[in-house]
Specification:
Elements lengths: L4 H11 L5 E12 L2 E12 L3 E5 L6 H7 L10 E9 L2 E2 L7 H7 E4 L10 H11 L5 H14 L3 H4 L12 H13 L5 E5 L7 H14 L4 E5 L3 H7 L2 E6 L2 E7 H6 L4 H7 L5
Parallel strand pairs: 3-8, 3-9, 6-7, 7-8
Antiparallel strand pairs: 1-2, 1-4, 4-5, 9-10
Bound molecules: adenosine-5'-triphosphate.
InterPro entries: AAA+_ATPase (IPR003593), ABC_transporter-like_ATP-bd (IPR003439), ABC_transporter-like_CS (IPR017871), P-loop_NTPase (IPR027417), PstB-like (IPR005670)
Organism: Pontibacillus yanchengensis Y32
GO molecular function: ATP binding; ATP hydrolysis activity; phosphate transmembrane transporter activity
Length: 269
């Protein structure tokens, strides 16, 4: 029998009750002008979890993930209702400082997008904006971040070379390292491997497993096998609605909603 979002959300809370809640999304609706893209989304996201967002093209996955750092508001016609609490504070409150949110919540995109600068300059960009000038401190941040992104050994002898000279998979790890350099709490990943070859994809997947020790990760993916391999919880979106949200094993083995079953068995999408 189909369950309501609230029932599913409560169950997921039970399963992760020993964990801190990083995000609590309540009754989130979002419109692009007249067109509604998200409908009454309710979802709790746990600390140190990898949370996968799946669903067919146009179902609202990217829109949802971009609400979590309020990047979606860069589209001027966007309007939202409901609440997203991050570590207990509603990020839609007028007094909430979006700059603080963006230092806590890093983002990695579908296409690797390093700056047209050296590998070193890519990593120190954020820390410099935050006022860090000391060369030794910056050097240490570069090493730590590149090690965290499993890239240090490959690039440590050519930090002054342009990041554009790296492979696509390495560029994506530069972007992850750039994100780690600001010491985020959460990393949002919007289809981070869809432009990469299988070997680079496997490296990023392995990296996600390492990163979850220290960060909470929310990843949009078209690839259901990827969601099954790397995530703790999975949310299935369809037409802007959160159809089902559960621990990944349960969602893929015994989906509670016929629409989830149809999607994961390849009947559409
Ligand atoms: N900037 C925008 N302006 C107007 N409508 C938009 C904008 N971005 C997305 N939408 C609409 O919002 C809905 C959800 O789009 P979104 O990109 O979030 O879906 P998605 O699941 O991430 O798709 P895909 O897997 O193809 O990337 C779609 O109907 C889309 O046309």
């Amino acid at each position: 029998m189909a369950q309501t979002n609230e029932q599913q959300s409560n169950e997921t809370v039970k399963q992760t009750e020993s964990k801190q809640t990083v995000y609590n999304v309540q009754n989130l609706n979002l419109w692009y002008g007249e067109d509604q893209a998200l409908y009454d989304v309710n979802m709790k996201i746990g600390e140190n979890d990898v949370t996968a967002i799946i669903g067919p093209s146009g179902c609202g996955k990217s829109t949802f993930i971009k609400t979590l750092n309020r990047m979606v508001e860069m589209v001027p016609v966007v309007r939202t209702s409901g609440e997203i609490s991050y570590r207990g504070d509603n990020i839609f409150d007028r007094s909430y400082a979006v700059e603080d949110l963006r230092t806590k919540v890093g983002m990695v995109f579908q296409q690797p997008n390093p700056f047209p600068k050296s590998i070193y300059e890519n990593i120190v960009y954020g820390p410099r904006i935050h006022g860090i000038k000391d060369k030794k401190t910056l050097d240490a941040i570069v090493e730590k971040s590149l090690k965290g992104a499993a890239l240090w050994d490959e690039v440590k002898d050519r930090l002054d070379q342009n990041a554009f000279g790296l492979s696509g998979g390495q560029q994506q790890r530069v972007c992850i390292a750039r994100c780690l350099a600001i010491e985020p709490d959460v990393i949002l990943m919007d289809e981070p491997t869809s432009a990469l070859d299988p070997i680079s994809t496997a490296k990023i997947e392995e990296l996600v497993q390492q990163l979850k020790e220290n960060y909470s990760i929310i990843i949009v993916t078209h690839n259901m096998q990827q969601a099954a391999r790397i995530s703790d919880n999975t949310a299935f979106f369809l037409n802007g609605e959160l159809v089902e949200y559960n621990d990944t094993n349960t969602l893929f083995s015994t989906p509670g909603d016929k629409r989830t079953e149809d999607y994961i068995t390849g009947r559409f999408g």
